[in-house]
Amino acid sequence: MSQAGRAHARPTSIAELRAVAQPPEVRGRRNAEHWTASLYLRRFSPYLTWLLLKTSISANGVTALMILVGWSTAAALLIPGIWGALLAVVLGQLQMLVDCCDGEVARWRRTSSPAGVFLDKVGHYTTEALIPLALGIRAAAYPLEFPADFLWTTVGALLALVIVLNKALNDMVHVARANAGLPKLADTHGETAPRGGLIAKLRKAARFLPFHRLYHSVELTLIALAAAVVGLFLGQPLVDRVVVLVLLPLAILSVFGHFVAIMASRRVRS
């Protein structure tokens, strides 16, 4: 089928859609797939993709929808109490589901483009910056009283900055390799693993306490929900304040460890 024909054709079955939209090189990606996608979302995403392919929405349009859902996730956390946190968890899962679908629509219609990759980055960067800001506002608690509550909103802002910096380190690697004329980095353990010594041992130890994985939108919403549940018994905003105060230094440690791991790996070696 030609590219023009595929752009207007619809799959005849979910199995056919899976074969095209979820090839082995997609399902086998080590870092590009969030654990929710690998565990269960990829099982359901073709059904939503099937519905999207019946419309005229483009793959980039689906990505724009993903961005809006991500922003709504952060906005939900501004609702005080457990219901805002619960809504954020649901929206966070929905964002990841739509995130699966934009690539599936692009692969079926053969419309993958740098613009789509760029929009995907915008969606994840902005969402994962807005959620910590919302956590800071939850820690300040309503009604906000300034300047006293600047402490908690500032902690949330610093957490957002550190999380975005940590995400940017991976993209900095790709930019550095491209500027040096090196090939695209393979998404394999051999390319990302430190070359040995103390750093490799510390990385193995981190697998038993993977706090560096807490800063994705899904994990942050789950943490917010857990804090809301515990807060029912221990009181709020105490629990939310403890959460952001714990998350910030761990995030700083994650950035430092991430930087050292990159420098100790083959990723930035010619």
Note down, in words, how this protein is organized:
This protein has 270 residues and is an all-alpha fold. The chain has a single domain (3-263), classed as Four Helix Bundle (Hemerythrin (Met), subunit A) (Up-down Bundle), CATH 1.20.120.1760. The protein has twelve helices and no strands. Helix 6 packs antiparallel against helix 11 (217-234), helix 7 runs antiparallel to helix 8 and helix 7 packs parallel to helix 11 (217-234). The chain starts with a helix and ends in a 7-residue tail after the last helix. Keywords: Membrane, Transferase, Transmembrane, Transmembrane helix.
Helix and strand topology:
Blueprint: H1 3-8, H2 14-21, H3 24-27, H4 35-52, H5 59-76, H6 81-109, H7 114-140, H8 150-179, H9 189-192, H10 198-206, H11 217-234, H12 238-263
Helix pairs in contact: 4-6, 5-6, 5-7, 6-11, 7-8, 7-11, 7-12, 8-12, 11-12
CATH architecture designation: Up-down Bundle
Q: Would you count the extended β strands for me? A: 0
What is the domain total for the residues? 1
Class computed from helices, strands and strand pairing = mainly alpha
CATH superfamily: CDP-alcohol phosphotransferase transmembrane (TM) domain
